[in-house]
Amino acid sequence: MRQTEIISSTDFASWALGLLVVLAIFAICVWAIKQLQRQQFISGDRLQIVGGLSLGMRERLVLVQAGKKQLILGVTPSRIEMLHVLEGDDCLISKSSFEPSENSFAHKLKQVLKGKVDA
User: Fold this and answer.
1) Is residue 119 domain-resident?
2) 3-class DSSP state for residue 78?
3) Do 73 and 93 share a structural domain?
4) Looking only at Cα atoms, what is the longest distance across the chain?
5) Is there a domain that residue 104 lies in?
6) Is the pTM of this model over 0.85?
7) Mean predicted confidence (pLDDT) in 71-96
8) Residue 41 above 60 pLDDT?
9) Residue 3 forms part of a structural domain
10) I need a labelling partner for 97 at 20 to 30 A (CA). Which of 13, 31, 90, 119 fits?
11) SS3 of 23-69
12) Are residues 21 and 75 in the same domain?
């Protein structure tokens, strides 16, 4: 004789409750990651990528603004190497020259992200 098992309502309820708990934990983790990324975006004014130049298929030259210094970095798939540090008058691009103007798309996007939307 072959006995067929039927899923009872208590089994289904415990399965559904377990699924809801897992989904709630997942939603909380996604929310926490978004909050952490938002905090990093707000405090990201100290370090900016000013420009970059592709030197080959996998090699790049990157100019990074770190405070009042600019770093020229060589970037490959296996390592990042600092090639030169520019300070003061030696800087290639001043910080004010790559800040967005009031009518630029970057400025309006920054306002939208901060929650200040002008129609």
Assistant:
1) no
2) coil
3) yes
4) 91
5) yes
6) no
7) 81
8) no
9) no
10) 119
11) HHHHHHHHHHHHHHHHHHHHCHHHEEEEEEEECCCCCEEEEEEECCE
12) no
Buried b (16+ CB within 10 A) or exposed e, 11-23: eeeeeeeeeeeee
Q: Please compute the mean of the pLDDT values over residues 24-47 and round it to a whole number.
A: 80
| Residue 43, token pair as written in the block | 């405090």
Name the strands in the sheet holding 60-66, side by side, starting at the edge strand that comes first in the sequence.
Answer: 47-54, 60-66, 69-75, 80-87
Same domain, yes or no, for 16 and 51?
no
Highest mean pLDDT among 21-30, 43-52, 66-75: 21-30
CA distance 111 to 92: 28
Domain hosting residue 81, numbered range = 45-114
User: Is the domain of 70 the same as that of 25?
Assistant: no
Residues 6 or more apart whose Cβ sits within 8 Å of residue 90:
70
Same domain for 36 and 50, yes or no, is no
Alpha-carbon distances of 94 from 11, 61, 87, 98, 111, rounded to whole Å: 66, 18, 11, 7, 23
- Rounded Cα distance between 39 and 45, Å, is 11
Whether 15 is in a domain gets the answer yes
